[in-house]
Here is the input.
Amino acid sequence: MSVTRINLTVNGSKEVVDVPSNWTLLQMLREKMALTGTKNGCAAGECGACTVMLNGEPVNSCMVLAVECDGAEVVTVEGLVQDGQMDVLQQTIIDAGGVQCGFCTPGMLISARALLDRNPNPSADEVRAALVGNLCRCTGYIRIVEAVQTAAQASQ
Amino acid sequence: MATAQTKETTYIGVSKPRVDVREKVTGAAVYTDDIQFGAALLHARVKRSPHPHALIKKVDISKAKELPGVRVVVTGQDFPYFTGLYLKDRNIFARDRVRFVGEAVAGVAAITEEIAEQALDLIEVEYEVLPGVFDAVKGAEPGAPLLHPNLGDYEVPNFIFPVPDSNIANHFKVRKGDVETAFAEAATVVEHTFKVPHVQHVPIEPHIAIAQVDGDGNVTLWASSQSPFAQRNLIAKSLNIPESKVRVIAPLIGGGFGCKAGVTMETIPVAIAMKAGGHPVKFRLTREEEFYTNFVRQGLTAKVKVACDKNGKLTAIQNQMWWDGGGYTDYGVNITRAGGYSGTGPFNAPNIWVDSMCIYTNHPVGGAYRGFGMSEVHTGIVQVMSMLAEKAGVDFVDFLKMNVIQEGEKVLTGMTMHKTGIKDCIEKVAKEINWGVKDAPTAPNRKRGKGIAVMWKAPAMPPNAGSSALIKLNEDASVTVMVGGQEIGQGTFTAMAQIAAEAMGVPFESVKVKGPIDTQYSPYEWQTVASRLTWSMGNAVRNAAMDARHKILEVVAEAWGEDIENLDIKEGYVISYASEESISLKDIVVYGIPREGYNGWVGGPIVGSGSFMPSYVTGLDKETGQGDRAVVHYTTGAQAVDLEVDLDTGQLYIHRAVSAFDVGKAINPDLVRCQIEGGFVQGMSSAIFEEMRLVEGVMQNPSFVDYRIATTMDVPAKIDAYIVEAAQDDGPWGARGVGEHPMVPTIPCLANAIYDAIGVRVPNPPLSAEKVYLTMLDNGVVK
Here is the structure.
């Protein structure tokens, strides 16, 4: 498989990566860059565990080829902590009890961050709609939806 | 044995924050697939059977071995030994026969996953296709194709009863009183046959395991595992090597729900790694493989017949269950046993007849699933009780209160029921849901109804499943608690930290409980299943903490020349009620205490140990199912829902769900509520959406698109969780488990509510919009 050199920004850092042309963004993040916070749950774009922000939009990174990300800006769950400070969503999801096994949590947080960036004050229905692509088998979702609304209020 | 304590507690019954959570929200938490193995890593893929039942005539791996990049190819001929948690009926790879679609026939390791996948196409397998068994009831009949002709030769514990020369891998019976006479004399009798389909656990993290074998044959396995110790034991058995040569390391796990208990795919990378010359071998299931090649929840057909007198008092319960065990029933046989000894649900009647049969079929292999058979059993038994109450003209809540098992009564197996809060649970949910009040629908095209259900469940395990814990004190007086039970999301590390802090008298924040579980260094724990950790491992941790505490106090007593009875540990200080002296643990738990006048030292590094194993569980008679004490205890509860049915679509709108469970004592009430909420949604998802559609053994819907689970859009706005506490006599501070229970009553609870809304019963899950609508159409509810 041919290898392509791409330039991109990941969590604020400029990166140059040589990546096989058939690799997904998920593979590149996890296997080339050891950013293992982004999870592989289905590799088919169905569970949302691999959600990252690509140019400000939440995407299933298992459905994006790495070579498509030349020139792009990517934010993963590792990028939510800035200068040692957690994103408000990370604190509210802890406080709400919205984390159990934690495997869906990174993707859930990225989808929620993307929502709050475009809609700082979402209704419960809007939060539910924004997180519909992030499957969770443990929590029952209600506390996660509450956490996103609490984060929105805290940021007002 | 630990006893319930009444004295005031600092950390018990307090909702402390989870200890594992910061790493989980920052992406720092390490799950198995996150461990880096570098360039030496090989990737495994598995050649699987396309047939539900066939003889293997020939396996030719010569072409696969020649593919560049392929390092190892193995088949069933390489691994002749049997394994299995209860009934030892499985090999690592099929040897002479395949019994379900997706069964492993050969394994490949290559330098990339792609090459391993390509090699599978080069493996040639010749099969002779055999007639299959695709229905458990038919499979139990004489003349059905036999799946395991050697069933009578398999190794099996003495509480599992296979029927040789049949497909019945276990037949559990209860015979108490005379049901036939009771039915003949009853005022009211109801009989109905229920069917529960196969469902999948679908943890968001698929199964993954990496194995490495060194030159001396020592096996190291990193696995997403609920059961590192059981896996060590079963892998050693399947490879005919001693347990001491197998080390299992289990990092955090991204959901288990039972499917990562026992042993399944984990043996495959171990087998391959034995021939990989020291290379680590990674095997990760695809989402499609996750659906049908590993454990699934067994299907159930239950023929239930119940009777009551003119007042609505139960006189007889008969429950005949055919469990669709799949091609192998190594774990399923004990689900069948649990279904049998709990086969009445939490109801009491003088005359009882239960048959619970585990049937081999050419379906995916059944294994533990949150509830361990109880969701399936309660689907029938609770609905049929609701039907009986209605026919007898008794309000269902009154019926429940009249007929649920009470302290001091004999359960179906003859054990005396311990203290239980089931009536309080019923009263709580009935009150909260406004039982008896018919609320108006919110739209003209909807009908509204309420449903209620009760449940019980006992930990299902060998009679002597044990726990152990070690506690060590560090220089800064922090406390490290080592356990072998796994944090699978339920919050057990947090609960153990609370128990250790309370029992020792140290601050919660000074206690550390962390994975990975490592069979080489962690103390033994049977498995993280059965909702048993809070109770069993909790007792072990409490015992270890009390041991450490005692050792500290002994040192101080000697150094100070005081009576140990006058000493106590409070918030990290040893204090004397006699001399009113105090000393920080920091000064003594590693370095000891100097004697007066530089005259030597007392003490040294403090390490505490504790274990727990129930000693009182007895066997049950093979023919009658009677014995003194079949189980350690039953956790009970009740659930109620208020919902609407859309008459145009059959869709359900759940306004409110209310649950109450008797947990004995909630160590951490908010974590208990998290289990109750999440469990309701998993139960609701399985009740409404989920079904493995199997046609001639082939799953038709192995993806999240075709096998839908509940999303954010499907859950009710409000799920209320109430905690009832009727203390368990041998639980730590009275605690018993509740991890599985919240999803157990959900199917019958929703089915009863749908009936209340539309006046016709949709008895069999999934209670899908399509099925509800068609049932309404067939019965003239809609036109």
Observations:
- The first strand of chain A starts at residue 3 and ends at 10.
